[in-house]
Design a protein that fits this description.
The structure is a homodimer of 158-residue chains.
Chain A (H helix, E strand, L loop, with lengths): L1 H21 L17 E2 L5 E2 L2 E7 L7 E8 L4 E2 L2 E2 L4 E14 L5 E4 L3 E4 L5 E5 L5 E8 L6 E2 L5 H5 L1
Antiparallel strand pairs in A: 1-3, 2-5, 3-4, 4-11, 6-12, 7-8, 7-9, 7-10, 7-11
Chain lengths: 158, 158
Amino acid sequence: MKKHLLSFCFLLMVLSTGCQEQNHNQADGSTEPIIFPKGEKITNDNFTGTAYLHMMIQSESANQTSVGNVIFEPGARTKWHLHPGGQILLATGGVGYYQEKGKPKQILRKGDYIKCPPNIPHWHGASADSAFIQVAITNNQFGPTVWLEEVTDEEYHH
Amino acid sequence: MKKHLLSFCFLLMVLSTGCQEQNHNQADGSTEPIIFPKGEKITNDNFTGTAYLHMMIQSESANQTSVGNVIFEPGARTKWHLHPGGQILLATGGVGYYQEKGKPKQILRKGDYIKCPPNIPHWHGASADSAFIQVAITNNQFGPTVWLEEVTDEEYHH
């Protein structure tokens, strides 16, 4: 019987290790695996709270599409902003928000994606309790991102 | 002792179930979780083997970027093709290949991303032994994809 128990303990250990390995690469406190690199802490004033950016693809004249991976810590968000050529967001982990001016806040979860129409002011970021990971695909054909005012705590929690 | 063994069995079952739940949404035979929908089997003749496409974002005049999730079964691949505005590929699961005309085949794994320059003939697809999942971001500003000849088995395995 003792031998059987030892075998079970070993099997338990192996299974348990297998589970842990699937979570080896996590975003700040969440259990979501990161697919693309976390990048560097954003230090410009276009964001509120702590967020990280890894630029994957830079825009250039031949293809004016830029792609970046953004990780927002809980509560972190962009300022209001707009893109003359529009933007596409792909949610790859955590729980986040997206809001267009004058419309209700939407919740974004892993597997969700959204098209921000050209010239529509909007913001995006993490929910208050969870980090949020997104791939941002920006069309710079008609000009760069225009940054606007901060998303107030009242707007964020509304 | 029997009681302890039963407790261990229960714990084993719980842990094992936990592991399985992380893999609940799999691409054909691989252990990779799918982030975006699998979509429909591709029935046009631009692909060799079995592949699935879920169009996430359609191109339109205001933002001529299209985004699609493609799942290639092992051995499946596109024909040679080119994009007048270029394309960006994000690898989200499995093991795949990318090759530009006249250059060596590159291996793509989860977390890799690649920029296909405008007007350069190339192909992409799964490796022979593993499915491959990619997000394809196409810039249609300068015209639609131009499809070319099939990737031969010799080219594929080279």
